[in-house]
Design brief:
homotrimer, OB fold (Dihydrolipoamide Acetyltransferase, E2P), five-stranded antiparallel β-sheet, Transp-assoc_OB_typ1 (chains A, B, C), Molybdate_resp_trans_reg (chains A, B, C), Mop_domain (chains A, B, C)
Chain lengths: 142, 142, 142
């Protein structure tokens, strides 16, 4: 698989919660963190998603928000990976932010240049990568 | 809270419609406009979302579309904030568009440079910011 | 309608699968391909979505992933349009990729510059445009 998404995490399905149209899929990462994905029930069936299945959790960088100081807020977004800013690339409109996780993995976020400036992001500062469950694509080996 | 999302609206929960896996949350803004968010039922429970609760509606600029002339179309996207283009920043690939709302708030959209050119956007022209309910993150004070 | 989204496909509703809060809408394109959209039940009612209805499927370029070699993977994303890379514009942070479909339509994706480099994208190579059902906005004539 060669896919444009910068975030591809190997994990294992922990649980699948079926709804009427959509399902919620919990994916455990080796580092102990969890990713929650919302996919259609059709996808659950076609991909054979069930507890124990090895999967990839795929997230576009543009779906990821950066939270620099979140002690005072609780967010509805199901996914929050805490780490340290390890790289920032500024463009005229967009900025690319890399957050290194304790597990050794990295998360990539594309945010607005203005957002980057407003946050005062600097390499070495703590930050969290935030993304919603519907932003996660689940992949399995064909 | 310091978050990269350019759009953070203070509002009050109007209603919560529970589904099997996801819920629809109506958020009333002080200016009389409404934002609809789709979040998981787990988030509704953890954040204590119920009518009257003060919340923040958070939307990434990249989740926002700009509609320049929408008299002839109805869209499935639940969120449509009408205003006036107040700023445009063009990059080689992306453009940042700011839409000033009658309430005094602004909405920020990151769109493609080609989209911006095709729309003929200019400061002072009317435009609507369009975003889907699953693009909205709900935040509450911790 | 003048909308910033680069991807606007004319199609016909094939089926609507109602859930508790959200519905899945299948849209048939003239070229024989299918697009799946997840919208709220309120939208289904307001837009009068039912089999046979002429609609537009609208997808922001930033919601589209590019898959360059997908023989070994199955993805939960419901939408996969196969074609050939016809244009690439590189920016410092983002890249714009155009994929020409056999039907004559094109799909536009905004991906990270790093993603573009990692994929080794070149004009003329086969590629698929991937996007999730919740990324699709459905439009009808007012």
């Amino acid at each position: 698989m060669k896919i444009s998404a910068r975030n591809v995490f190997d994990g294992t399905v922990g649980a699948v919660k079926l709804g009427a149209v959509n399902s919620e899929v919990d994916i455990a990462l080796p580092g102990g963190q969890k990713i929650v994905a919302t996919v259609t029930n059709d996808s659950v069936a076609e991909l054979g998603l069930a507890a124990g299945k090895a999967v990839k959790a795929i997230v576009k960088a543009s779906s990821v928000l950066v939270l620099a100081d979140g002690a005072d807020v609780k967010l509805s977004a199901r996914n929050r990976l805490e780490g340290t800013v390890s790289a920032i690339v500024e463009g005229p409109v967009s900025s690319s932010v890399t957050i290194a996780l304790p597990s050794g993995d990295s998360v990539f976020a594309t945010i607005t240049h203005e957002g980057s400036i407003a946050l005062g992001l600097k390499v070495g500062l703590p930050a969290a990568a935030i993304f919603k469950a519907p932003s996660v694509i689940v992949g399995v080996s064909a």
